[in-house]
Amino acid sequence: MRPRTRRHWRWVVLGMAAVLAAAALTAWRSAIHHNRQVAFEPFPIAGNLYYVGTPDVTAFLLTGPQGHVLIDGGYPESAAGIMANIARLGFRITDVKVLLNTHAHEDHAGGLAALQKASGAQLWISRGDARVVAAGGVGDPTLGPFRLLAYLGLTGYPAPRIDHRFDDGATVRLGPIELTAHATPGHTPGCTSWSFPVRDGARRWLAVDVCSLTVLPFDYPGRQAGFERSFRTLRSLPAELFLGSHASFFGMQRKLAQRAKATDPVAPFIDRAGYLRYVDRAEATFRRDVAKRGDR
């Protein structure tokens, strides 16, 4: 038998490394797929506003006599849970007539295609994020070099059909439901925060669903100016009912614990002070990031 050469063993080692890498990638994707399907009990927030998302990635349902509005679609794996939550509250997915989105990242736009197919709803996407959403996450400038993973099929999501592209200040109406789009770029170029009135009997509040002020590590043209604009815009809104694209932004778990002891179940969610603290903390983080980049 011919002795094994160094080249032979090199190929053996590379082959074993490839097998181990493939196994690790499979296990990683399986774990991620499982974690994105974690169920969470839906609940009414106030009036016709309901929470139908996952433990941290939010989705909000606004119900009305002419149909319902759903804000954000979670991950691709989250769509089934969102639909189950809508049904658990006694509503039908086919009565969702409008789908809205805060931004183009997979954890908020990934389930839109499935939700759109199940509901037949019209999808509204900001002009700044429309190209990325229409491509199923491909070409996202906020991911830096990691955007290449979408081309390899390792990230990304099913591309939905975009029915309406909108700009800052757009108003979306469905019967008595009315939402206003506020461009709050920085996290993504088309990051959109939504404001809308919520009525509960004789009471009325302005709800603001903040897109995100999280500073990602990769720069893109206009990012700094976008964040500067977003801080000004959000502070100018007379927000009372504080919401966000992640439950951690507005302390949802803490507020649910407070709610269990409160005489008024809406009271913990009326939190303008918390809203302003969130903006202040995000701006401080942004300023530190700008200073650090200036030192490079």
UniProtKB/TrEMBL annotation:
Class of this enzyme: hydrolase
Keywords assigned by UniProt, alphabetized: Hydrolase
Presence of the UniProt keyword Cytoplasm in the record: no
Location of the Metallo-beta-lactamase domain: 56-246
Taxonomy, superkingdom: Bacteria
Record-linked Gene3D superfamilies: Ribonuclease Z/Hydroxyacylglutathione hydrolase-like
UniProt EC number: 3.5.2.6
GO molecular function: beta-lactamase activity
Pfam families: Lactamase_B (PF00753)
Coiled coil segments of this chain: none
Identification of the protein by name: Subclass B3 metallo-beta-lactamase
Organism per entry: Fulvimonas yonginensis
Lineage: Bacteria, Pseudomonadati, Pseudomonadota, Gammaproteobacteria, Lysobacterales
